[in-house]
């Protein structure tokens, strides 16, 4: 055994761990909701604080900072230009989210830059760190808004009119945050700059834990979508309206939730009602209206389609039985992503044969993959819990992720 090399490797690991913890803790404080989790929504004051953190990280490293037309943030090592190797993720969260989904990829990206500099690597092409805007769609309902606008799969006119729960449009929210919604849209120049995109992300299941592997790569993302189901009933008094006289939208909604579970189980898919809005939302009033959002996912698009058709049919039948009217509207759909073999094989080779896993979670890398070569590196999640304050990855695995990302960037940017 080469004692010197061993000591060197140990010193690097300790060093990386210390640097990781430093950067991580500063970011983790932004918008920390404690046991309630993070509520880091696009264009809110917390988002602006996160954006400030990103700018500061860029400045500390002497990287060139830019915000693109769609609000995505970029930090460049070397002059911004075409064919760059790009890495990063997002800083926003779901309601009650964890610290890792998104931020781990951005922190790892900056630390990978540090690691490359430490290794004395000089990239032969530009290298950039990116923070994509509004990946979760927690505020305006559509996920991956920054990458969808950048690649043109979301029209700027539609984006500007998206509304949050208070009726504030995305355009108004951007203006209030000092950003210009007039410039939104497909950005050829920004796209041409991306030679390859590699997003590091905490795994959102137990795939790597089951395989006892600290890191892996993504093979595919299941097709998925969001559908709004609105049940129109009739508000009335809870104490005086006979059961037979009611048009209670809650009842067909409840049947629809059970039908969705049944359909998903039979078809090998996933269906979730995670967001509901009641009008008028009073204890002693029969609701006039229920808006509920269905999140549907499956290994293939045909299964998603079949499941949503079944759930829609069940909703119609249940609604008719209660004198309630129902509409089901697709708010966003995302096709299946199969990450390209070429980039993935290169990454797997650099990392010495790590596992490749499919996922049911959507990512900006999935949106970008339709336009530029894209890949993902997953870091082990010991419990598989995500979109929850309990989401967690061990620091040793996070550091392994940074080292893996640095090696991948070195290989992509130098050869
Ligand atoms: C994003 O995290 C999603 O897949 O919902
Ligand atoms: Mn997420
Ligand atoms: Mn994410
Ligand atoms: Mn996501």
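^ structure tokens above, recovered residues below v
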């Amino acid at each position: 055994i080469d004692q010197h090399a061993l000591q060197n490797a140990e010193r690097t690991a300790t060093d990386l761990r210390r640097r990781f913890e430093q950067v991580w803790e500063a970011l983790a404080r932004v918008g920390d909701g404690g046991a309630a989790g993070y509520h880091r929504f696009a264009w809110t004051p917390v988002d602006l604080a996160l954006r400030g953190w990103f700018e500061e990280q860029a400045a500390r490293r002497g990287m060139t900072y830019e915000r693109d037309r769609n609000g995505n943030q970029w930090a460049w090592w070397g002059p911004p230009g075409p064919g760059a190797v790009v890495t990063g993720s997002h800083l926003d969260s779901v309601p009650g989210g964890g610290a890792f989904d998104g931020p781990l990829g951005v922190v790892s990206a900056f630390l990978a830059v540090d690691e490359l500099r430490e290794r004395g690597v000089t990239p032969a092409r530009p290298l950039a760190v990116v923070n994509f805007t509004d990946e979760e769609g927690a505020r305006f309902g559509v996920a991956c808004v920054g990458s969808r606008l950048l690649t043109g799969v979301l029209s700027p006119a539609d984006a500007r009119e998206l509304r949050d729960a208070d009726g504030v449009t995305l355009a108004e929210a951007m203006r209030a945050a000092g950003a210009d919604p007039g410039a939104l849209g497909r950005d050829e120049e920004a796209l041409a700059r991306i030679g390859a995109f590699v997003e590091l992300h905490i795994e959102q299941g137990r795939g790597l834990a089951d395989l006892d592997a600290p890191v892996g790569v993504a093979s595919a993302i299941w097709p998925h979508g969001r559908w709004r189901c609105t049940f129109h009933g009739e508000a009335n008094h809870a104490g005086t309206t006979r059961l037979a006289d009611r048009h209670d939208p809650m009842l067909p909604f409840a049947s629809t939730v059970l039908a969705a579970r049944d359909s998903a189980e039979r078809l090998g898919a996933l269906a979730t009602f995670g967001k509901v809005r009641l009008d008028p939302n009073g204890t002693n009033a029969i609701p006039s209206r229920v808006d509920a959002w269905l999140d549907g996912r499956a290994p293939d698009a045909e299964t998603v389609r079949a499941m949503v058709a079944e759930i829609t049919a069940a909703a119609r039948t249940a609604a008719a039985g209660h004198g309630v009217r129902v509409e089901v509207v697709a708010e966003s759909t995302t096709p299946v992503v199969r990450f390209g073999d070429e980039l993935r094989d290169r990454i797997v080779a650099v990392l010495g044969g790590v596992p490749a896993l499919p996922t049911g979670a959507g990512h900006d890398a999935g949106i970008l993959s339709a336009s530029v070569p894209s890949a993902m590196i997953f870091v082990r999640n010991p419990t598989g819990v995500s979109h929850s304050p309990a989401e967690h990855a061990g620091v040793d695995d996070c550091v392994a992720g940074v080292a893996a990302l640095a090696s991948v960037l070195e290989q992509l940017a130098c050869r």
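Residues 224-334 form a domain with the Alpha-Beta Plaits fold (CATH 3.30.70.360).
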